[in-house]
Amino acid sequence: LSKEAQLASGVYPNMLRLSLGLEHIDDIKYELDEALSKL
Prior knowledge:
The chain contains two helices and no strands. The protein has 39 residues and is mainly α. It has one domain (3-37). The two termini are 25 Å apart. The model has no long low-confidence stretch (mean pLDDT 90).
């Protein structure tokens, strides 16, 4: 989405956007923990 469309949808630059698929919940938790540990 464009910056304008994001703002119009209530998505702001200081937010974290997650796009989740049909993976097992344990896989999602693990990958999210891995990514956040690198911040």
